[in-house]
Design brief:
It is built from six helices and six strands. It is an alpha+beta fold and about 200 residues long. β2 and β3 form a beta hairpin. The relative contact order is 0.20.
Length: about 200
């Protein structure tokens, strides 16, 4: 049974990739450079003012993978990650697996940034979430999970974020895939930058 599910999931992944290629994986214009420095700095200020360890950063990134996710899910966001505010890093599941990324680099490659405080978040629970996520650094990316056939010990981005805060993951079925665009259902939005346009977004 497990082999049948895996085969079906692989076929779905292949079909999704073909769909993306047919539609054309057109990404965003990369709005990067000195003219966006003040806006990017305002995002850093928002994080320092409003965020805490273990909170989620839901974003629209500039990587090819972000383009593919946004197009395939018809969503303005493409990624979810876990903030380690103390170390100025994010823990995230990307194509090569679970990694740690410097916060400055993460923001540099971000087109839109949303800070979400998970339900039942406390500073202690946030610290525990960061520790849990760090234990999974080096784990593989859950490619089958994004089509509803999750693999134990593998994670896709929003799956890792939800798991770190104790939410149930690894549920079979395409309708149970947790998309980045749905993360606000499990917490409160504290800040939303909107699309990068050069104008500071915090304070507003």
């Amino acid at each position: 049974m497990k082999q049948r599910i895996s085969l079906a999931a692989l076929l779905l992944v292949g079909a999704a990739l073909l769909l993306i290629q047919c539609r054309g994986a057109r990404g965003l214009d990369r709005r990067q450079g000195p003219e966006y420095q003040d806006e990017v700095q305002s995002w850093v200020q928002a994080i320092d003012s409003k965020a805490g360890n273990g909170m989620w950063l839901v974003s629209r990134g500039y990587h090819v993978g972000d383009d593919m996710v946004a197009i395939a899910t018809n969503s303005p966001v493409s990624h979810a990650s876990i903030l380690d505010l103390e170390k100025r890093q994010v823990i995230e599941a990307v194509g090569k697996g679970v990694v740690v990324t410097d916060l400055d680099k993460f923001i540099h490659d971000t087109h839109r940034l949303i800070i979400i405080r998970p339900q039942n978040w406390t500073p202690d629970r946030g610290t525990e979430a960061v520790a849990k996520a760090r234990e999974k650094v080096g784990s593989g990316y859950d490619y089958l999970g994004i089509v509803g056939a999750p693999q134990k010990s593998h994670f896709y981005c929003s799956e890792l974020a939800a798991w770190s805060m104790g939410l149930r993951v690894d549920r079979n079925g395409p309708h149970r895939v947790l998309h980045p665009k749905d993360m606000h259902r499990y917490g409160a939005i504290l800040f939303d930058s909107g699309e990068r346009d050069g104008d500071p977004d915090f304070p507003n």
